[in-house]
């Protein structure tokens, strides 16, 4: 991870995240889900929408941030926000107690969770190592406009 343009997630990973999130949202909005808690399904949908916004921010262009160190910190912060949003959505989904599509909802959450915890984790670790190297002075900071 020595190039300044390495502060981004691969396009194929972002496409997978988007597809899996869209599947999750489709089940949450159009699926047959039931809850004994009043208002839970609306809350769940809002949490999933927030998750989508957080995932979208992962793929955002950070070229406007002049220093590589700051780009990495921004991206790591976005990763943390996405993980937190996923956790909040998963907690809300625990209140779904029935319906024909409860299995589909669970499968969609599991697929997205696997993507975020496995695929994304490898990139996060590499960015964290790069950030530590920059902080130690082992790597040269770029000063692009």
Helix tally? 4
Looking at the structure, what is the overall shape? elongated
The helical percent reads: 55-70%
The counted number of beta strands is: 2
Strand content: under 5%
Question: Kindly, what is the distance between the CA atoms of the first and last residues, rounded to a whole number of angstroms?
Answer: 20 Å
Mean pLDDT: 89
Radius of gyration: 18 Å
Spatial ordering of strands, largest sheet: 1-2
Low-confidence stretches: none
Structure, explained:
This protein is mostly helical and 145 residues long. The protein is 69% helix and 3% strand. It contains four helices and two strands, in the order αβααβα. It has helices at 11-30, 40-58, 68-93, 102-136; strands at 34-35, 96-98. Strands 1-2 form a two-stranded antiparallel ribbon. Helix 1 packs antiparallel against helix 2 and helix 3 (68-93) packs antiparallel against helix 4. The protein is elongated, with a radius of gyration of 18 Å. The two termini are 20 Å apart. The model has no long low-confidence stretch (mean pLDDT 89).
Q: Brief description of this entry?
A:
This protein has 145 residues and is mainly alpha-helical.
